[in-house]
Design a protein that fits this description.
Layout: H1 2-61, E1 62-66, E2 81-85, H2 87-90, E3 99-103, E4 111-118, E5 123-125, E6 136-138, E7 143-147, H3 157-160, E8 163-164, E9 168-177, E10 183-184
Antiparallel strand pairs: 1-2, 2-9, 3-4, 3-9, 4-7, 5-6, 7-8, 9-10
GO molecular function: serine-type endopeptidase activity
Subcellular location: Mitochondrion inner membrane
EC number: 3.4.21.-
Length: 197
């Protein structure tokens, strides 16, 4: 009798221990799951927050750009890395002689890097390399005239005409790479004519 009573007590104690351990484990499991979910949501929140800040910085302040193609040689070589600021375009601060990044009028998925030759109302010498006679044109309101420094190897406003000011993405003013050319960009090396009266 004593033996069966102590066995029953032992079984009860074991059941209570198992039940308590099970509750503890479930509680611990829920706590761990809550902690993981909280950390995950925090990480997602920070990622979205910093992503928005980075987007605004690149869209409104500026960013680093790698240039490709020969159209701006010798001022900007293929694979040069430059800094483009975007504040000038928002405040209509683009001037003749500035080098800008703009959406290509013929391919909106790509960007072009050209020098501003004329602003709205300017009279521009518009002959392309294939033209025999020189002609002039006025840049319409809300547009700019862009050309590459390497006139013999540049597809620019001489081919597709003036582009809307809204296509300008930023103004390049500082060269980062190569280090031998590190610094502010200078005026056009080939004596570009900015307007022709």
């Amino acid at each position: 009798m004593f033996f069966s009573g102590s066995l029953a007590t032992a079984i009860k104690i074991e059941c209570i221990v198992e039940q308590t351990y099970g509750q503890w484990w479930q509680s611990r499991h829920r706590t761990m799951l809550r902690g993981v979910l909280a950390k995950t949501f925090r990480l997602v929140g920070y990622t979205i927050q910093y992503g928005c800040i980075a987007h605004c910085a690149f869209e409104y302040v500026g960013g680093v750009v790698m240039c490709s193609g020969p159209s701006m040689e010798p001022t900007i070589q293929n694979s040069d890395i430059v800094f483009a600021e975007n504040l000038s375009r928002h405040f209509y601060g683009i001037q003749r002689g500035d080098i800008v990044i703009a959406k290509s009028p013929s391919d909106p998925k790509s960007n072009i890097c050209k020098r501003v030759i004329g602003l709205e109302g300017d009279k521009i010498l518009t002959n392309s390399p294939s033209d025999f006679f020189k002609s002039h044109s006025y840049v319409p309101t809300g547009h700019v005239w862009l050309e590459g420094d390497n006139l013999q190897n540049s597809t620019d406003s001489r081919y597709y005409g003036p582009i809307p000011y809204g296509l300008i993405r930023g103004r390049i003013f500082f060269k980062i790479w190569p280090l031998s050319d590190f610094g502010f960009l200078r005026d056009s090396p080939n004596g570009h004519r900015f307007s022709d009266d």
